[in-house]
Amino acid sequence: MLDWTDRHCRYFLRLISRHTVLYTEMVTTGAIIYGKGDYLGYNGEEHPVAVQLGGCDPEHMTRCAVKSQEYGYDEVNINVGCPSDRVKNGSFGACLMAQPQVVADCVKAMQAEVDIPVTVKCRIGIDDMDEYEDFSRFIDIVAGAGCDTFIVHARKAWLQGLSPKENRDIPPLNYARVYQLKAERPELNISINGGITTLEQTSAHLEKVDGVMIGREVYSNPYILADVDNRFYSDNRTTPSRAEIVGLMQAYIERQDAPYFKPWHAARHMLGLFQGQPGGRVWRRYISQHGTGKNPDPNLLTNALAAMQETAEKAIEYQSKDVG
Question: Which of 9, 56, 82, 95 is catalytic?
């Protein structure tokens, strides 16, 4: 979810679910160590939240893990699944599946210096290394270094010939391979990722594995999280309505004081909030038209909601006249 799940996105998602573990977009060790920005900053309301690191040097990874713990993150996750060229050229991400010992060295070094969990997100294979034996060998070497939690994207990655977008769709899903891993290694905590779009599918996966990670569907249809706390965490609180979330996010936008901040930075993550709802298209269009440019609407979200509701009311009025 590179460039997607930033701090504004995570704050928004936390309003919908109190218990879902949120992950940062991948942050490289180079950015954290040498960059001028605060690449580890987050809102205190985001917990439980995990930082996802991209890197391959045990010393650098350890420095960043220690810093992440000092910031208060609940988990540090090593990304061994991203097939982006930016990642591949830096010798980390999915290409590290061909170097399990490097990942194991990072895990061991990091765990020696931090108390928070060190976890790994990976694929089921890369390029021609896509047999179950290759996958299980990677898991065994990294687990042997002390990692007991793996989040597995149930697709292989083609590092040559496919774009990152194509790698999210073209390689076929192989959930059975992840199930087999869990069945053969019950002592490991295994979560599954890839192509999951409903809570019904989530429930089915949880009969075979320990956890489910949902990425793109949550981003495009975030209110799917509205029933997660009740369904999976036995929390019977009432989830804020979509309209209530709009009000909370408008207040969040108004609190931001960073000189570079614009309402669009938060609102862009909310385009799918009314997916499938009457007026949802008006909501998306208003935000897109009035949230960017030199003079964005300071009341962007409340005005977008008003425009959407007005359109919906007119539609009901027209329907009533037709019936009459």
Answer: 82
